[in-house]
Amino acid sequence: MPAQVVVCYVYIMTGDEPMSEQDQRGQNEFSGGSRYDCIVVGAGHAGCEAALVAARAGLQVLVLTGSMDAIAWMPCNPAIGGPGKAQVVREVDALGGEMGLNAERALTQIKLLNTSKGRAVQSVRTQCDKWEYSASMKQVLESQSNLTLKQERVERLLTQSGHVVGVVTNYRVRYEADTVILTTGTYLGGVIHISDIAIPAGRAWDFAAVASATHSGGSASTFSASIPARRRVSTSGVWT
After folding, report:
1. Which CATH number fits domain 4-73+134-221: 3.40.50.410, 3.50.50.60, 3.30.390.50, 2.30.110.10?
2. N or C: where does the chain have the smaller number of CB atoms within 10 Å of the terminal CB?
3. DSSP structure class, residue 235
């Protein structure tokens, strides 16, 4: 089966000259890792669903995450569903996904929105305990057969003859697979701006995901996920 990359959420990769096989295999810092059918990079919502569907289909799956304590972490407003998104949650659920089930296990409130309007714009939204949601999803991954979960950050994609064949982590461990699924989300090349200071980071001071494609002769770009600036009420008469 030819190797392939499945691109999720905000990752865009364009082909260029791949690293030579000698560059990839000849460096002493790469120690041997196992071979899998599928490697999932990132363990947010998309990564968890991708890993579970592959493992439940009988593939040997490796999930690599920067933090075991941030699996399926829900930032800011810990909600599942709502206008537009509830449709996606239902589709994931219909395909055997875990998001809807996990939301029920961790919910603190469930509400039907827009009840004063027509049914076409009504939607269900749950508010969840973000700690419980993360812990519950981690337990699901850990108990899933055919799935291995490791806390390592991917720093390079390995390519051979124009195909991605694996990854190298921050521990210099090489993992090979027929399929690599990237679900780094907004962590990919992430930057936090504070005043005139720019800090490479993911969310809330987590490590940013390295733009791995640039290390393999490709290019990467992301969509912005900007958050408006906050100001103390005591310093301004205007609430921002």
Report:
1. 3.50.50.60
2. N
3. G
